[in-house]
Amino acid sequence: MFSYLDLQTQNGQRIDVWPVPYEGTVSFGRGTSQGPEAILRASAEIETWDEELGQDLADLAHFTTWSAFEPPVSGPEEVLRCMQEELASICTPESFVLTLGGEHSVALAPIRVYQNLFPDLAVLQIDAHADLRESFQGSPCSHACVMARTRELGIPVAQIGIRSLCREESQRIAKETNQEILTLFAHDLPSPEQAAAQVREFLGERPLYISFDADGLDPSILPGTGTPEPGGLSFSWLHRFWPLFFGKCRLVGMDFCELAPLPGAGVVSESVAVRCINRVLTAFLRQGGPNAPG
Amino acid sequence: MFSYLDLQTQNGQRIDVWPVPYEGTVSFGRGTSQGPEAILRASAEIETWDEELGQDLADLAHFTTWSAFEPPVSGPEEVLRCMQEELASICTPESFVLTLGGEHSVALAPIRVYQNLFPDLAVLQIDAHADLRESFQGSPCSHACVMARTRELGIPVAQIGIRSLCREESQRIAKETNQEILTLFAHDLPSPEQAAAQVREFLGERPLYISFDADGLDPSILPGTGTPEPGGLSFSWLHRFWPLFFGKCRLVGMDFCELAPLPGAGVVSESVAVRCINRVLTAFLRQGGPNAPG
Amino acid sequence: MFSYLDLQTQNGQRIDVWPVPYEGTVSFGRGTSQGPEAILRASAEIETWDEELGQDLADLAHFTTWSAFEPPVSGPEEVLRCMQEELASICTPESFVLTLGGEHSVALAPIRVYQNLFPDLAVLQIDAHADLRESFQGSPCSHACVMARTRELGIPVAQIGIRSLCREESQRIAKETNQEILTLFAHDLPSPEQAAAQVREFLGERPLYISFDADGLDPSILPGTGTPEPGGLSFSWLHRFWPLFFGKCRLVGMDFCELAPLPGAGVVSESVAVRCINRVLTAFLRQGGPNAPG
Amino acid sequence: MFSYLDLQTQNGQRIDVWPVPYEGTVSFGRGTSQGPEAILRASAEIETWDEELGQDLADLAHFTTWSAFEPPVSGPEEVLRCMQEELASICTPESFVLTLGGEHSVALAPIRVYQNLFPDLAVLQIDAHADLRESFQGSPCSHACVMARTRELGIPVAQIGIRSLCREESQRIAKETNQEILTLFAHDLPSPEQAAAQVREFLGERPLYISFDADGLDPSILPGTGTPEPGGLSFSWLHRFWPLFFGKCRLVGMDFCELAPLPGAGVVSESVAVRCINRVLTAFLRQGGPNAPG
Amino acid sequence: MFSYLDLQTQNGQRIDVWPVPYEGTVSFGRGTSQGPEAILRASAEIETWDEELGQDLADLAHFTTWSAFEPPVSGPEEVLRCMQEELASICTPESFVLTLGGEHSVALAPIRVYQNLFPDLAVLQIDAHADLRESFQGSPCSHACVMARTRELGIPVAQIGIRSLCREESQRIAKETNQEILTLFAHDLPSPEQAAAQVREFLGERPLYISFDADGLDPSILPGTGTPEPGGLSFSWLHRFWPLFFGKCRLVGMDFCELAPLPGAGVVSESVAVRCINRVLTAFLRQGGPNAPG
Amino acid sequence: MFSYLDLQTQNGQRIDVWPVPYEGTVSFGRGTSQGPEAILRASAEIETWDEELGQDLADLAHFTTWSAFEPPVSGPEEVLRCMQEELASICTPESFVLTLGGEHSVALAPIRVYQNLFPDLAVLQIDAHADLRESFQGSPCSHACVMARTRELGIPVAQIGIRSLCREESQRIAKETNQEILTLFAHDLPSPEQAAAQVREFLGERPLYISFDADGLDPSILPGTGTPEPGGLSFSWLHRFWPLFFGKCRLVGMDFCELAPLPGAGVVSESVAVRCINRVLTAFLRQGGPNAPG
User: Fold this and answer.
1) Is the pLDDT of residue D293 over 50?
2) Of the residues A193, B257, C96, E278, which has the maximum number of CB atoms within 10 A of its CB?
3) What are phi and psi of A116, to 5 degrees?
């Protein structure tokens, strides 16, 4: 396989990159199992220098890319169990794992492991879909349920970019809003400055896990996702958000899921994915990163 | 074939969906004959709940998808004649037919049938091209002539998103503007609020037919059309326009044409098409729809 | 969905066509879940007249195409259980079901159901792979194990076209040959006449189920399979085999699996699949079919 | 556009190459309108030296490639009328025109024009389909009817490679065989030597027009056709046939139709097309060609 | 090959269009060698009327499309040498050459030739990348070095849209800014009005060469480039820029490079390329063009 | 990158696998630079057991896959120089290197290095093209010249499968045949038994290097090459040839070149490539391999 960014340096924070090419039983094929390889491959072509922030990610971090997770064929519960087992045996509070999906359902494994390490964990979700269904296509572990499962663990969830949901999810958000769920809908999006302030207030100083579903971005700039939804976050909105957002909170891990590369449409989607991941990491690490004295 | 939205309900307004996979004699192939199937297939994956309007289209309408029209091979005039015959035999003033093209030329058949039912019919055209040529590639029934033919019937036409036309079409628009043609050019687009007011004033309380050419939208969000033209309508502009626009006017029918799915580029274009159709219907029907007491 | 052959007639034997677009958890995507739709769609373009046999399949059979099976997401054992339950509730000794996979693993469900109906059932497998592994990728229900599972039921298996296997499978074949397994390897293939005689002798007058893995054919003529293996059966060898083979034996059901359509490479693979299925049916049914007086 | 073979020489027989990218009204798109350009483009990469015959086509002929025919949009009868008008105004008994389709229906125009020039014209058809239907999809000028129309003109037709037909076509062949139609079915193909003798005897010394439908070849070697049919002519059978066949008969024109290039599958189909055309021309012209003293 | 715009007129300024399908030694293939043909082919479908400016490019210019440059295989220095030789032998101060790449490295040839004709030449670069590396992948003539080579010639360079660079390039820009380099970064882009004023002041009345790298635009509207970078120039920003920018400066030549068409994703990228080129030419030529009395 | 066969064993002969993704300056793109990765990736899916020979390649050899060669951008001579330098520094008479191209031109580097180690080296070439041109597209190091360069070194060359050449190459073969060149043309191919005897007699007991151009095989079974030529070697002919051929001669190295994977057409070509390589190695190594007592 390929290595994330393909750097030869050992500067700054160590980041473990975990490719999880898992795509559940598919009837009409979505392609998210090809996501990790596409991201790793594209990453070698992307400059690590961030002109706006005046920082080079290669100074702030180095990356260790693990072998790809080999999902068992016995269903999604078993996949999550194996992922958790593997991750829990390696992960310490000092580890920073970047999980590359695969379906969004795989995010549940690192969320559970990180909650064991940081009991007051909070989650920031970038997504087009609320993912708050109780069950979908006969499984409580579908990609459409990952935040329902997260909420069951008592973890507060901030959501940005939501624009596709069913009435039940809408009602749940209305009921829980501002206490356990903060939803910034795409059709009513505040400025990056306002959003950064709102989310910071909601999350407080909890340790933070970011779960980034590729379809949170608008499909004009990231068309390669299983269920593209127009009206999403622009690249520049999100790009500006991260440096405004990071401050006191400590980012402990993150995932990037649901990229489904489009073989006939070039490498725009995976290049954008790498840019998004790098921006999160650069914006966070320039402050000192997870192991800096808080 | 597939069914639009694949709902199992019978709520609200009945809408008949008519796939017309017609693409005229082609030398270099454009792919609009694949449009209807792509739209129907994508529609099953799209949520019917509209979070912003607080409405579920599945409460407002149910859909009956007809077998696809089988175009005869004897040229475009004959295609239009057969379409009209088939449609006229079924359509009553209470029918709402959603025609899925195919080339934009097919719009002429429902426009003629609806004008017979509603003699003061007006047309609202979403398009990149003015379609006001007298003739193109040797035929007066080309996709580039559909609004010239509509105007010949005395039907007033409002156009939104126009940005590709020849000098003759430009001169015609200049001459007829505000009396029989209202053209909102893409390079000089007013706000959705202003546009809604302008178009409402132009159309008055005439029964309305909407002819939606996929290339009215910007190709960044809908790349799958035969002749993509940059500088088009953004998804959010149009999304905001519809709820502002609908009020007194009665929508009697509509078409969505010129989608040419891109097999190597995912399903963004067809997903956007469904979102656009659903928004028009939801924005209109929440007021009561065509059969509501006006 | 589409209907097999799209005939409007009700002649001869009723054949139930069951699309099973199941593809197990995939890491690198193979595409067999697209197989059933591709076969159904291609079937409408294929002539039913068989010039060589002087028979029209449309005189011998009519087809009822079921809705596609919707595989649960909870793993392959559960998929097989649901398939069996659904099939057993419908299938009688008079039914003839043509199952369209999907992975080859799905063949196990109809084989089990037919064995309940016909306890002395035998299986004729067309395949590149022996499929005799005890377990593969952590599951005893993998596509690579389907004939190991079939043998466990005590069912004799004749295999034609085998050319890809591991040493353990080779040893098993050597041990069981001519008693419970008859393997005609592709590199040592007898003439169709000899093969027909050998297989008839091996199978005797047992009721027969045919399990047809697309990769039994050479990839020059059927490139669209998950694991193409050169050196396979030519189309003409197999075409000549069937009329020579059928005689006393009663065919009770069949499947065609592992077709993975190639979107950029035309429709050769799916057209060949339909031709192969039609040839089996025509060669068998011209004698009177399953319900003829034996 | 491109030039056939892209030679810079003026040796031997002049051959006019006429690209006719016509594809009739299509519902599901077949791609034969892309055929002429693909053939011209591929031709520049192919060696003109024929090692087996010890001849260089560049010594025997030179090529003039016309601008592509621009089919009118008013249906197939009008297309044929325009083609005939254009061709008749240029063609003399000394002309040799190589028409590159497009649909097979376009062959009717050169056949009619050549019959006017040579009243005792005969046709040799390479094809998978008999093309003897009276009408198809509502038109007597469909690609499925081209030989029915040819027979109406009293022209005898020899067919090689036929394997897909309906019962009515089969009955017609049975009735007319050996008098006006000679059909060499693919499933009962004689050796090239026998076939050459049979066809020569059938055709006698009539001036000959060759109509070559790409699907006559087996799809393993030429997958890029609209309706691929397995069990076809092998490349080597046909390659060996031509030098055995040509002798006294005078070839006056030919077409190559129904190539539908496959963008994702390389250039095999179009390369094979060029090799087939070149072999016909080399095998014929080494004897002196159409204008040699007979 | 094809002709740019395929006009039959001889109005206004003659523009020579030079296709240069050069792509240097590639390990992972980028596809820019297909750019010139894609642009020429798309150009025939684009209207030449500019509604906003009230001008028809067909009144202002006519186009002569040269045969494509055939790059030698002996490395990039030799390619540039041959290009320069060919260009210098044809080009006079009155010529206007539009070079269609190919890699951005090919821009160096016309820049050198135009500097010989106009010693005080300046360059305006539209690009995502600064292209100021001293050397890349072992060559000083890589596409990543083209502006370093240009600066060595003493030519001042204005850059618009830059957003991907390494630290060394960032430092160089910081050092040379406003004297010899003016860089308008994409993340800090002024309004078109301000940008036009800034660039005009920087360039003064020097003769101008425009080097347009396709990736300067945002990949949402032009996805077909070798190294897509999100956060780029919007189509409308650039569209508005040109009429504001042109005034006293004389445009003497231009190139459009790095378009890599995406076969599975339609023709959006190449259509946008043509629109961009036409806008530059229309905005400049409506003032009288290069040969107008300055 | 990926490892050839992905074995975890260390049995038998060590074989070094060298990916050389070199593709010279391309105008219209052929894709051979993608060949090495496609072969490595496909190799993991292929069984190593050879049923016919009763041997498992995993018992006979183990594989060490090197990092891919990074070709310099300064032209083909420099590429060959760097390859030779790298190879000569590692290669001893005991090494067995399997080079995976890339263009066929890269074969010249290992041929030169092996000739230094074994002065009486002979070459066996599987190919559609004679590759005996003195120069092509301005370079003596083109893929079309590799055997002309080999012959200049005094190395005898046996060629199998040749069917595409120019008159000059034909004349050269006629002149040198049976002394320094043995050419088995595809159109006049002897049986595998006869061919094995002829080639063995021609080569005698010289140390042997095999240069395998993918297009030697017929494109029906290996369509993914830059210049497909119909009428080639069948898979079964070649499969039977190798065990008959190997005897006294010592194979010292080999390459497999010119595979150009077809992204839209599945993995047939690369799977066939792996099968071909494995068959050569198994047929040779079961005798004891290069380091066995001769």
Assistant:
1) no
2) B257
3) -65, -35
Mean pLDDT of A247-270: 92
Neighbour order of strands in the sheet with F181-185:
F61-65, F13-20, F97-101, F251-257, F208-213, F122-126, F157-162, F181-185
pLDDT tens column, D24-47:
755 444 789 899 999 999 999 999
Taking an 8 Å cut-off on Cβ atoms, the answer to whether C24 and A78 are in contact is no
- Residues of chain E neighbouring B163 (CB-CB closer than 8 A): 51
ipTM of the complex model: 0.93
Summarize pLDDT for A117-165 with one digit per residue, the tens: 999 999 999 999 999 999 887 788 888 999 999 999 999 999 999 999 9
Number of B to C CB contacts under 8 A, please give it.
Answer: 6
Mean residue pLDDT across chain C: 92
- Kindly report the nearest CA distance between residue F145 and chain C, in angstroms: 30
SS3 C210: strand
| DSSP-H helix ranges across A204-267 | 235-245
| Cα F76 to Cα F23: distance, rounded to the nearest angstrom | 9
Name chain E's partners: 3 or more CB pairs within 8 A: A, B, D, F
Q: At CB < 8 Å, which residues of chain A contact E?
A: 45-47, 49, 51-52, 56, 218, 220-221, 235-236, 239, 262-268, 271-272, 275
Residue spans of beta strands (DSSP E) within E115-250: 122-126, 157-162, 181-185, 208-213
| Alpha carbon of A10: minimum distance to chain B alpha carbons (Å) | 38
Kindly list the residues of chain B whose beta carbon comes within 8 Å of any beta carbon in chain A: 45-47, 49, 51-52, 56, 218, 220-221, 235-236, 239, 262-268, 271-272, 275
CB B16 within 8 A of CB B95: yes
Closest-CA residue of E relative to A218 is: E220
DSSP secondary structure of F147-175: HHHHHHTT--EEEEEE-B--HHHHHHHHH
Helices and strands per DSSP (H, E), number in chain B: 9, 10
Contacts of F264 in chain A (CB under 8 A): 263-264
Question: Which SS3 state, helix, strand or coil, does residue E162 take?
Answer: strand
Sheet holding E61-65, edge to edge: E61-65, E13-20, E97-101, E251-257, E208-213, E122-126, E157-162, E181-185
User: How does pLDDT run across E41-99, given as a tens digit for each residue?
Assistant: 999 999 999 999 999 999 999 999 999 998 887 778 889 999 999 999 999 999 999 99
Neighbours of C163 (CB within 10 A): 26
For A203-226, letters b (16+ CB in 10 Å) and e give: beebbbbbbbbbbbbbbbbbbbbb
